[in-house]
Amino acid sequence: MKQRLSKQLLQKYQQGMCSAEEMAYVESWYNQLSKTNNAKDIPELDLAAEDRYFQQHIFGPELRANRHRRAYLKVAASIVFFLMAGAAMYFFSGRQRSPQPLPFSVGQFQADLLIGNEVVSLDEKKPFSPAWMEQRKGDQVAIKTKKGQEFKMELPDGTTVWLNAASKLEIGPGYNVEERAVFLEGEAYFKVAKNKAKPFIVHVGKTSIEALGTAFNVKLYPNDSQLLTTQLDEGKIRVSNAGLQEILLPGQIIQLNVMNGDFQLQQENKQQDAANWKDGYFEFDQTPLPEILADLARWYNFTYSLSPVYKNKVLSGKISKKESFAEVLKILRFAGINYTIDKDRLLLVP
């Protein structure tokens, strides 16, 4: 049955009685609504405008024909206040840490800056500043994203980094002195500023990736896969592991098994760009369902279990990362994949 936002559903949410799927639906609506109100204080909310939004985008003709319009408006206002107050509690209770994303909600542009013993929450309004490294020379600096977060930053040398969800980038205290070394856990895309005198090196476990001036993607989530994947878009990079080296040219991808050190070099799949995540899309081309779920779970912040029946299933397609999780569920259902939801866990069962 198609989910609908109703007075009863909003009341269930306030009482903490919603299922995970219902929570995802309500919070998807709220995320859309809050985009137009994120600059307002709670007392200044235009309730008439919110009511119009309800009629035009949520309830449609059914509500416009309903005589109990004011009752719905009161519930709408209360849920906005309730959710905004909850968001404020999340933000201020973490000693400047970024708020923990809610399960099944659309990811946000956020990260935590770890500098010395301090933690600073970063977002679009408070970006990473290389000046912090200048002021705190000698301190270890790291930028960390949780599940449901990603971040873009510029390093002191002009290199741009896109950090994907559930990832961490450490920047050594001697960065940009003799060399430019960073240490990655998870996934990141690098557009490296040219400087032949100071090589740019990404360390991922026991593997190092060296570049001069180039753009490339690096991915390794050890809990999901033992394959380190690097895709080169521009320039040239050298991938080294346990004495073995491989040179990549534009349009090439290398997969390195971090357990046995095996290299596999292949041409880039023109139908699937591994770095599209930084541009706001998931893109899959005959991609195994376990790999798809791992990417979705990091962005929408959920856990999952997968029936063996589906482990060999592959899917193709492209979807915006701004879509609600409810839309993702529709796609799974359309692809013939059955599911149930238990709290923050997605169960895929036939």
Polypeptide structure, described:
With 350 residues, the chain is of the alpha+beta class. It folds into three domains: 7-92, no CATH class; 108-267, Jelly Rolls (Sandwich), CATH 2.60.120; 280-348, Phage tail protein beta-alpha-beta fold (3-Layer(bab) Sandwich). It is 26% helix and 33% strand. The chain is built from eight helices and 20 strands. The protein has helices spanning 7-14, 20-35, 47-59, 61-64, 69-92, 131-135, 289-300, 325-334, and strands at 108-115, 118-123, 141-144, 149-154, 160-163, 168-171, 180-191, 200-204, 207-211, 215-220, 227-234, 237-241, 244-248, 252-257, 263-267, 281-288, 303-306, 314-320, 339-342, 345-348. The strands form three sheets. It has a six-stranded mixed barrel with strand order 1-3-6-7-5-4. Strands 17-20-19 form a three-stranded mixed β-sheet, covered by helices on one side. Helix 1 runs parallel beside helix 5. The longest helix is centred in the N-terminal third of the chain and has 24 residues, at 69-92. It starts with 6 loop residues before the first helix and ends with a strand. The relative contact order is 0.09.
